[in-house]
Recover the amino acids of this structure.
């Protein structure tokens, strides 16, 4: 075979995946496992701490307060992660339960939804998940780390929990490579354009062609698509606070403490996790803000002392009597959002062979394994989970 023809074949694929974070790593793995020739490209080397796929843990819940249309993706993701665990020996998914706490009076919205508790219950009913509704007294008896009011209430199920984002990405990229995927790191895409019945992608290194292009660029989505802030990128801070008394640490372990989302009587909701690792590593708690927009290039990645003090005084100290004001660690991550915390999983309006996936809005990782599978099936013309509610129409 002539060298020129060989090089052309090596640069031609069934699909190219642009961005190898949560969704992109999953899509690349699912394509390769189906025997497709696939190229995965990323300007960095995931997992890393510059996007949205880091911070040790991510909540996963099948009963989604954002709407019942998300539940099939979370449920399928659990199945995929269990399968990946069996293939790799990694620990990816811990099902230690979920509390969604709310109460009377003015409460912060959960993922921009003031009725988050009620819609979580409705989603659980539709997904046929067994759950309990707990009053404030019962919450304190079962989970003494929470300082809840008597008139607070909570949804509780045992099928939810948390996943390890960095390990999930690493595992799927590992399996993708084993299945024949070509992975190109530290390679920035400069442009993509139609090319006959396919797509041509130009990077700073080479030019490639594929039948389908899947764009999973996370917070870089506006730059890749050439949009002017159609997707809102917001800075989020993750905090790890220490324990007041080390002997209390069993109360914070996954065996005793579920993940939680708490609609506080405060400006923002909080979410958090049990103690992962040694007591001195701290307990992870975070808020969510959707007001101040940024970009991956301009975001402030340091966390100032006054932010830590404000976080503890407003969101931690009054509600977690066992936690100390000492902040062990902080991380900054990015949300990529459209209104009402929706997802975008749709074909490019002007290029039918380009699939765009921005299924994040702050609650995307729990769905990522199934979204990746869906993207692969869309690219290969196979049947897939319903994405009709995640179209561009009426969302951005």
């Amino acid at each position: 075979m002539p060298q020129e023809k060989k090089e052309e074949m090596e640069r031609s694929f069934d699909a190219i995946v642009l961005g190898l974070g949560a969704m992109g790593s999953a899509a690349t793995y699912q394509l390769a496992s189906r025997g497709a020739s696939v190229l995965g490209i990323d300007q960095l080397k995931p997992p890393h701490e510059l996007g949205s796929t880091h911070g040790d843990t991510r909540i996963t819940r099948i009963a989604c307060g954002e709407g019942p249309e998300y539940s099939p993706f979370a449920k399928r993701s659990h199945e995929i992660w269990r399968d990946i665990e069996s293939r790799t020996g990694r620990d990816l998914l811990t099902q230690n339960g979920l509390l969604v706490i709310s109460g009377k009076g003015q409460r912060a919205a959960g993922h921009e939804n003031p009725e988050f508790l009620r819609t979580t219950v409705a989603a659980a009913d539709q997904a046929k998940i067994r759950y309990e509704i707990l009053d404030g007294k019962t919450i304190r008896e079962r989970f003494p780390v929470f300082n809840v009011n008597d008139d607070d209430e909570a949804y509780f199920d045992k099928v939810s929990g948390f996943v390890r984002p960095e390990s999930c990405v690493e595992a799927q990229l590992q399996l993708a490579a084993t299945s024949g995927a070509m992975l190109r790191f530290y390679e920035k895409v400069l442009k993509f354009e139609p090319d006959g019945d396919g797509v041509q992608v130009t990077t700073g290194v080479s030019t490639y062609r594929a039948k389908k292009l899947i764009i999973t660029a996370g917070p870089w989505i506006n730059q890749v698509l050439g949009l002017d802030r159609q997707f809102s990128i917001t800075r989020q801070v993750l905090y790890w606070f220490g324990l007041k008394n080390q002997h209390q640490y069993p109360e914070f372990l996954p065996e005793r403490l579920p993940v939680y989302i708490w609609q506080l009587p405060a400006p923002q909701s909080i979410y958090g996790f049990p103690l992962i690792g040694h007591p001195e590593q701290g307990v992870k708690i975070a808020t969510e803000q959707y007001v101040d927009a940024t970009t991956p290039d301009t975001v402030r990645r340091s966390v100032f002392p006054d932010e830590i003090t404000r976080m503890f005084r407003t969101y931690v100290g009054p509600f977690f009597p066992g936690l100390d004001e000492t902040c062990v660690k902080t991380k900054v991550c990015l949300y990529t959002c459209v209104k009402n915390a929706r997802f975008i999983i749709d074909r490019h309006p002007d290029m039918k062979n380009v699939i765009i996936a921005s299924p994040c809005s702050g609650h995307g990782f729990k769905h990522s394994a199934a979204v990746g599978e869906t993207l692969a099936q869309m690219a290969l013309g196979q049947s897939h989970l319903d994405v009709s509610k995640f179209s561009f129409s009426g969302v951005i």
